[in-house]
Amino acid sequence: MSSLYTVLFAAVLPPFLLILLVWWKDKYQREPFSQIAKGFLYGVLSAGIALVLETGLQMLSLVPDEPATLLEAIWKAFVGASIPEELAKLLMLWLLLRRNKYFDERFDGIVYAACVGMGFAATENIIYLFSNIDSWQSVAVGRAIFAVPGHFMFAVTMGYFYSMVYFGDMNMRKAYRVFWIPVLLHGTYDGLLFMSNVGTMWSGIILMCFYIFCYNMLRYGQKRIAEHLKRDKEDPTQPAYWADK
User: Is residue 237 part of a domain?
Assistant: First the structure.
């Protein structure tokens, strides 16, 4: 039984630490733990929704189980993973925030999106680790370094644009970015991984492109976080503005 708890701990620890990180950054008016837990639970539910959608696509033979070509890898990355997963997360984020009285700062959008994203990532981690129980340690390390931070950055982007629309910082005609920018990041992330596993002469170069993409995505997410923290601090209508007065 102790090994079972160890695997579960390894699965949920990285998402938990990233939630703690984004909660800590929200230093002016932190969200209640009850809302953080609720967001995480919604993320778990989003994983269930995504699994149903992805299974349905595979049963209809619209997405290959194992991509055999570069084109199939890209198709599976976007149609079989990125679009249904980000759609499920966005649905749950909308349900979480539509009547949430605590959603009163721009950075809150990132906090809540991160909670949903990490709930999704924790669920996915549990599935992957128990599906590869004989080598769960190496799977846990790999996902802690790449997959979980990847889902965190997809969530940061979704939360960033969600707040941009909600607080009127972005024209409604550009509201599509709330969904399609995370889809683009997620699809590119998965696409590069899937293509590197196809086994072509370009696999090494594609894998290097994957590492470069992850680094740039990390920097992109950091900038989005800093932007919303700055906007909240400089906006006299936001709690963050009054915190330093």
Answer: no
The token pair at 190 is 């998965």
Residue 240 belongs to some domain of the structure: no
Cβ 170 vs Cβ 161: under 8 Å: yes
Q: Which two tokens stand for residue 29?
A: 């008016």
Structure tokens at 65: 């189980």
Distance CA 186, CA 183 (A): 5
Domain annotation covers residue 243: no
Q: What is the Cα–Cα distance from 154 to 225, expressed in whole angstroms?
A: 12
**What would the DSSP string read from start to end of 120-135?**
HHHHHHHHHHHHTGGG
Structural domain of 105: 2-231
Summarize pLDDT for 116-144 with one digit per residue, the tens: 999 999 999 999 999 999 999 999 999 99
Residue 173: helix, strand or coil by DSSP? helix
Residue 241 domain-assigned (yes or no): no
Domain count, the chain: 1
pTM confidence score: 0.94
Residue 113: closest CA among 142, 88, 78, 141: 88
pLDDT tens track for 60-76? 999 998 999 999 999 99
